Amino acid sequence: MLSATSRSAVVASLPLVRSKIEQITPIFYERMFTAHPEFLDGLFNEANHKSGIQHSAFALGFISMAARMAEDENEEVDAMLTRIAHRHTALGVSASQYDIVHDHLFEALEIVLGAEFTPELRRAWNDVYWLLSNVLLRVECDLYDAQASFARWAFWWVTGREEHGDTVFLTFEPVTDTPVSLATPGQYVSVRVATPSGRKQARQYTLISGGGTARQIAVRRNDAGLVSPVLNDTLAVGDMVELSNPYGNVVLTPSDAPLALITAGIGATPTAAIVRALAEAGSDRQVQVFHADRSPAHWALRERITEDVHSLPNATLELWFQEGGDSSNFTGDMDLTFMDIPREAEVVLCGPLPFMQMARGQLIDQGVAARQIHYEMFGPDLWYPERG
């Protein structure tokens, strides 16, 4: 909780910092990566840094959380920080790196704000930074401690590879007999590989199967990416890759509440994991699955999800395709306004940002509480949802 003095200073200076943050973040990252180029080797996303998306995500997150802290909306801040902590632990972030980020961020603030960054403002924003960081560090420490192994990265064999159009299904098994953490349906792992530049890069992929010692992911090719082309084009059975432990807080939890799974494109991977777990448990929970894709052929998980949904006694499946559907599907963009989604439903969203924004807005308009709507985003988090 911010002190009264810090809160007052943050509220007063928010317009100033917000107006300059897009100048501050490039300087911050440039100075930090110059001093610590190793951060771009397996920790930070090199492509997002070059495009500036990483800068925008940090700016949006820092300002959004500072504003909510100043307004004592600590429950919302905690939810945001929990999502970030899971992502950090999936990348192996360590406590010492918070000091490095702090020093370069505050140097950038001083450079851009100059005399306006008074000692009073520095103390207040320092308070913001360390309150956020200490929550993250506490959650991350607990997440690390809960794993079966202290190792943050481990080598795994590629033991299976199946291609479906532009999507490849990869199965991994551990190289050693080190204890393996079991994944909760909906969680993801980071996959870290060497890229053509010689640097390592890590990306997160939902475990569509991870209840035992084996792991399976589905990777849709992204020609603009650095990691998916390696996984799609060059990774073969018998190769070794580095995987993190499983993380992610948008997961299947024990509940009798109705469940709505709303996805688009390769964002269907959490649904695949969740409905498979429900099917294997013989669940009678009310489950609604809504998915949008380019075409039936383009949806690599279609057969698996359809089979699992049909095996559940109280599950339904509604589909939208841009092309190639039939009379049993909808054509065009997903529209939830005429779907009967219970107000008490727990909701999982996963897909492109505009899609999730649309779906969340339609759900809230129908009376579903914002606290019941959970989302997973792979890539820079450019969305801090409005209060609903």
Total number of β-strand segments?
12
The neighbouring-strand order within the major sheet is: 4-3-6-1-2-5
Number of helices: 10
Secondary-structure-derived class: alpha/beta
Shape: globular
What is the residue-mean pLDDT, rounded to a whole number?
Answer: 93
Q: Provide the β-strand percentage band.
A: 15-25%
What level of helicity do the residues show? 40-55%
Q: What about the largest sheet?
A: 6 strands, antiparallel
Q: Which H/E pattern describes the elements?
A: HHHHHHEEEEEHEEHEHEEEHE
Radius of gyration: 22 Å
How far do the termini sit from each other?
A: 23 Å
Low-confidence stretches: none
Task: Write out key terms for the chains shown.
388 residues; alpha/beta; six-stranded parallel β-sheet; 12 strands
Question: TL;DR of this structure?
Answer:
With 388 residues, the protein is α/β, with parallel strands linked by helices. The protein is built from 10 helices and 12 strands.
Detailed description of the structure:
- This protein has about 400 residues and is of the alpha/beta class.
- Helices cover about 40% and strands about 20% of the residues.
- Helix 8 links the parallel strand 7 (about 260-265) and strand 8.
- Helix 1 (about 5-35) packs across helix 5 (about 95-115), helix 4 packs across helix 6 (about 120-145) and helix 8 (about 270-280) runs parallel beside helix 9 (about 300-310).
